[in-house]
Amino acid sequence: MRIGQKLIHLESVDSTNNYTANLLKAGGLSSGTVILADEQFAGKGQRGAEWLTEAGKNLTFSIYLEDVNLSVENQFNLSKMVALAVLDLLKKVGIVAHIKWPNDIWVKGRKISGVLIENSVSQSRGIRSIIGIGLNVNQTEFGSLNATSLQLEMGNFVPTRDVLFSFIESFNSVYDQFSMHPEQLNAAYLEHLYQLKEVRTYRDESGTFDGKIVGIEPSGRLIVDKEGIPTSYDVKEIVFL
Ligand code: BTN
Fold this sequence. Notes:
alpha+beta, 12 strands, 25% helix, binds biotin, five-stranded antiparallel sheet
């Protein structure tokens, strides 16, 4: 499996994830296709949020993947690989980043990239995944958002196309590596996980508590040591304070 052999470049679209889903319904979308837009006017974030970025300055794109070797139980593996691919791309330009569970990418306490994966299951073609990635490249003003970009971190303008091609390379190599050695994927993800094994403050449905992230379930649920008891959370069930 390789991504990026086919690239669709749009000037403006509501959301590259929606555009990809519509192409898929219409038929004729091949696995590995990358759909890139210079501008999204209704970009979607996680948990129903919007993904707002300045037109023309950043990367907003989706990857369509078909029949990835995933089951419902291990579908978080794809999230892990995407996060590791973004980290790899950043490392190539000297930026050290962390993964904030589930798959936000942070640099020195600010968000540089977000990922929204939308999966569907078809009987004939297995799990079909639309992986939407927003990566801040040349935007330098974020208002009240706690965000950063490649340009802010590197101190110079970076052509978005170069970043996209570098990401495609990183993704293909991460995917190859962990398809061959799936047993190494979880450790690689945990190695870069923000706040792993640190005592920090969180909030769940019963209130605020000091706890320690100790791992991830195969489904992607976060395991936090809460007063000595490993407790697992879905993304909507815990807040990092
Ligand atoms: C998040 O951190 O909330 C996830 C953001 C995901 C944004 C990307 S941009 C390309 C793709 N199309 C969308 O509408 N959303 C994703």
